[in-house]
Predict the structure.
Amino acid sequence: MDLDLSLAAPDLTARLVDIESVSGGERPLADAIEAAVRRLPHLSVHRDDNALVARTSLGRDQRVVLAGHIDTVPVAANLPSHVERDVLYGCGTSDMKSGVAVQLRLAALIPQPNRDVTFVFYDSEEVESERNGLLRLSRNSPELLAGGLAVLMEPTGGVVEGGCQGTLRAEVRARGKRAHSGRSWLGVNAIHEAGRILDVLRAYQAAEPSVDGLTYHEGLNAVYIRGGIAGNVIPDECVITVNFRFAPDRSAAQAQQHVREVFAAWEVTFTDVVGGARPGLTEPVAASFVTAIGGTPRAKLGWTDVARFAALGIPAVNYGPGDPQLAHRADEHVSLAAVADCEARMQAWLTT
Amino acid sequence: MDLDLSLAAPDLTARLVDIESVSGGERPLADAIEAAVRRLPHLSVHRDDNALVARTSLGRDQRVVLAGHIDTVPVAANLPSHVERDVLYGCGTSDMKSGVAVQLRLAALIPQPNRDVTFVFYDSEEVESERNGLLRLSRNSPELLAGGLAVLMEPTGGVVEGGCQGTLRAEVRARGKRAHSGRSWLGVNAIHEAGRILDVLRAYQAAEPSVDGLTYHEGLNAVYIRGGIAGNVIPDECVITVNFRFAPDRSAAQAQQHVREVFAAWEVTFTDVVGGARPGLTEPVAASFVTAIGGTPRAKLGWTDVARFAALGIPAVNYGPGDPQLAHRADEHVSLAAVADCEARMQAWLTT
């Protein structure tokens, strides 16, 4: 399969979408992208399994990283792509082959960008974290990801979304004493005791801190509760799984400490934690990006792969032509005008 | 298999235990009991599948019912029975072949009891209610169960336990609005809302009413709680299953109404309800029974089959030689002295 990078980003998106690349099956698309970027003499290309890094080396003062994942969620009878009234339908149109098309167009169109550019195309973003190609690259070749700002071209509806919040999950455990429910006063009901944990959650005031000029919004919520042994038994355990979404002014360790303090009266077991990412919008390179893209940047509240750049010390933002509400849906689509607009704005940033 | 009713109750218990009769497999034991009671000319015998009713018809002013189930839980490598230091070990020794042995001895020993006696031997008490032999008899031949007092010879440790409490289970449902946990304020967390239900449970003051001279002790408890959709979703539903154990001064319908009122703010769905049984200890026939047995009667807090007599309008008590703590255990056993004592006291009640 041959990718024609002379096609504008909207048309190129359709070509990318039609090369199926469900997580784990990215090889044909990675091969096609590799062949296309290897034909561009101003880029040096590195391949790591189905991830690719293509870089200019012009000795510019600044280097920016443009990253996108090339995998999709499973196809939902929505391939091949088709166009209806200037909208492209198909698996991966929004999330995020339109963003990848913009990356490839910039790689092909701008042999002399005003900043050195590192293009990252990676695999397995839509599956469990351990398989993530960007994580693998950050372990195998962190030097290839270096830069002053990273732009993750995930769908944001054409708005700059800075950084991201971290997320952790913890099990908070209420203990009791088992007894027959016919003589409940001989036991201690752990489900009733869990009511005290819910009191804490109901009273919790989530912070809305400003970080690098963007306002984040934390949240602490029960996402699971389970307890009970039998219909005639006073249960001796009730476990509430809480999810803490925390702003990037807290590290992962600080967020864990906060949760420990909030639930100091109970046993707390962390099941997963990933830190967030500062947006870095106070840096000049980021300011120039915001100016080129226009609009008012907002904080990214969900967790995204920008956090992997943050872990390498690189401020990062999310910006892409897709619509995040349409990701993973059978009727996933993208406005062709939005793709063209994104291509034009990114081109302006890297050339003027 | 031939049952020798000239054996005293302790020895007869061992014979009964050694005729295996796990629920559903009671036929050999029912056949043996039927043959034995049909040899007693003062009794008229009625068989319904593996349940038997054997009655005197002496025209006495009073009629009492002595009932016991002949099935056991599955054998736990604890058959045949064996005796160690005046204790009989084996499946069903406590629950409740020692009680059945006393019934059979009374049937054989007392052709002219001071009250007409109805002996009931029934199947499938240890399994789901719909298979219960006493329930089947109460539907097919309620007239055969008539009487002024019923004594269920379940293990009570030799103490009269009057009546029983009823029990119901209900699902109390908290509703919310689903949202991504990264933007939790767009949803309503049903698990947090369930905290209000737990507030009600924690504040609930259980009644301890006196009924026919015995003090019952109610209880309202969560026995299950479940909620949660995914680790990143604010859940829109949380369900608490509550178990209400209610004294026999409330009917099943009154108990349901009470639960509806307690949880008036939420959707309540009843999953099962069975009424309790009044002990009837204020009636002369019951008073004579208590005098004959001795000790201080206490209220039965768990639910037992005495409630089936209550449903027929017959006050009922629990009294038997077994130890309720040993029921269903691999090391189930019964004191042979306790069996002999029970036999003697019951004989005294029916003859003096």
